[in-house]
Amino acid sequence: MNFIATLLFSHLASFFPADTNQYQLIVGSYTQKGNPGIEVYSVNAVTGKPTLLYTKENQNASYLTLANEGKLMYAVTEASKEPSSVTSYQLNSNNEFEKINNSFIKGSGPCFITYRPESKTVYTANYNSGSLSVFKTMDGALLPIAQEIKYNGSSILKSRQEASHAHNVVLSNDHSYLLVTDLGSDKIYQHKIYADGLVDEKYTAISITAGNGPRHFVFDATGKHGYLISEMSGTVDVFSIEDNKFNKVQTIIADTSSTKDPKGSGDIHISPSGKWLISTNRVTSDELTIFKIGADGLLTKSYHQPVAKKPRNFSFTPLGNFVFVASQTDDKVQIFSFDDATGKLTETYQNMNIKTPVCLVFSNEPMEVNPEERLKKSNITLIPVVPPIANYVKQVQVGKLLYLSGHGPDKPGGGQMYGHLGKDVTIEEGQAAARLTGISMISTMKAYLGDLNKVKRIVKVLGLVNSEPTFVQQPQVINGFSNLMVEVFGERGKHARSAVGVAALPNNISVEIEMIVELK
């Protein structure tokens, strides 16, 4: 028993349940320096540490978006001259994106892309051609371009505003209309979206202060306020929104550099909590500007955070506890921890060395884990499944639910763990018994299913602990089982649970556990 308890401790020492929360980060980049264009990472939700998983060749993938709960991805190929294109990807059985197809844009310089799930349509803003492209999709694949709208405008700064330059496409919170920012004309175009995803070509134009150069726009969670970062003025405009009508209520300076030349503000995002807004300044200054959002939606500037050169894009992690900043010029992504109570950013010095990074997109949900790979990584060896010796079966499937009979703590070399908790067996040995019971149950599932990736969720667990009357620490014992489930299945392994003490178990085994599992 001491050997088994020691084995349990070695597993628990290397296993921290929160570490199973890994979020996918996709980095898009320009490819003039020989880099692939798309690099996919897993990011630890607790530490912010990134791990490169794989790369995809996609020329000048300057912007991309995820769809269908992260199972689809659409990435632009930004070319200064035609042809530019959009490429579709889907997750394969190995949880890696593989190319479906691509479709050409009737325009050039696509620099932003978004997806509307209700109509399964893709929208791109095309900077050089000053146009909007709309694509329909079928089973994730892009169909030929369905609609193109060209804008014809200009403004007072002739070096940058000689013509329309569409820079950003943003869906309203209810997905009923689409906003397109036009840096060249100092306008935001508001298009009604039809049921099939096409847009009304008769748009409403929202005028911005001449020479500002509107770049990116974000809505707050209520949809009652919107925030615009203007590139050349280095300012943020705040809008109150009612009945789809925009009323500017505040302008606040983001880039405080003293230059009289046009500035270079870039990106803008609201923290997941909705309490903070951050924008990037580049070219004339390399920094983030952190604003506190008031109850009325108005902004109060908190401070400036210096960052590496040309922070073109940044992103909060889904939990809001880290901010990743893409430095286009310094060829790296900086990682800052973020204190949502104070708005304070602290550099973690976990830089990602990526050539010309310009787009960071996180999946909103934790990554799917591969339990087969988790078993190998944890050096967990499954055991042969022995047929039951009585008139019952080890598992019964009803629809998508799999019911597993009570299993005991089977040792790898044969035999089981015996004894009462609180008398013959310590808590640590009881945890080892629960872990062995879990390995036995996983072995049964593997034999029945063939592939553990068919498990969608561990739903309900009943843990019975052979206990002395005075022993009351049954939950700690069954933790040995629960931790194993999360170690192998990640978030899918978290379950509802009961841990009960009983006076006796068959053959005096220390633990017996039964389980309900949902299948895909």
Structure overview:
Residues 5-19 have low confidence and may be disordered. Helices cover 11% and strands 44% of the residues. Strands 8, 9, 10, 11 and 12 form a five-stranded antiparallel beta sheet that branches. The protein is elongated, with a radius of gyration of 28 Å. It has helices at residues 2-14, 371-377, 427-449, 474-489; strands at 22-29, 37-44, 50-57, 64-67, 72-77, 84-91, 97-105, 110-116, 121-126, 131-138, 141-142, 147-150, 166-171, 177-182, 187-192, 204-207, 214-219, 225-230, 235-242, 245-253, 265-270, 276-281, 287-293, 299-306, 311-316, 322-327, 332-339, 344-347, 352-353, 357-362, 395-398, 401-407, 455-466, 496-502, 511-519. The chain contains four helices and 35 strands. With 520 residues, the protein is mainly beta. The two termini are 37 Å apart.
Runs in which pLDDT lies below 50 for 5 or more consecutive residues are: 5-19
Number of strands: 35
The percent of residues in helical segments reads 10-25%
Assess the beta-strand content as a share of residues.
35-45%
Global mean pLDDT: 94
Query: What global shape is seen?
Result: elongated
Cα-based radius of gyration, to the nearest Å: 28 Å
Sketch the major β-sheet.
5 strands, antiparallel
Span between termini: 37 Å
Briefly note the structural class of the backbone: mainly beta
Quickly count the helices: 4
